[in-house]
What does this fold into?
Amino acid sequence: MNSLQSIPSNHLNVVLPYPQVFKMFWSDPVLASRLGQCEKRLGHAARTLEARLSPTVTRERLDQALAHYAFGLTQPLYADREPAEQLDAIVSLMSKALPPGRVDQAIHSKQRHDERFSAACESLVRLGERDALAIIKSQIPPSSAGKQGTKSSDGAGAAEGTRK
It folds into this structure.
C-alpha cells in the first residue's frame, strides 16, 4: 500500500522536536527550496479540500486526506532517506496547514475501511508524488535540462486532482 501506513510503526512515534526538524531540512538548500514549494502546494491542497469536501466529509477525514497528499508530496524527495526523516518532513509540512493536535491525529489515526475514501487517499498520494516531481523538474538548472531534454514544469497542482 502506498500510504502513511507504509511507514514502519516504530517510526510513527519518533518525531523530532520542530526546531531540530527545521535545522535538518534547511541545512540542505536544494531540499529547503523544494520543501518551500511543497509547503505552498500543501496549503493550496488544504484550502481546496476544505472548500470542496467540508460539507460531506468530517474534519478528521479531511485531515487524513491532506496527510496522504503530504505523504505523496514527500515521497520523491525522501526516496533515498530514512522513513523517520520523511515522517518528520510530513509533520513539518502539515504543521504549517493544521494545528499540532490535528497534525498528530491525522498522521497517527487509522483509516476505517471505506473503499471510496481509501481510493481518494490513494489518488491524493499519487497527486502529491506528481506535484513533487514537477517541483524537482522545475528546479533543474537550464543547462542540465537542455542536456536531458527535459522541460521545466509547474505541475498540475492539487486543485486539478480533486475535481475528479
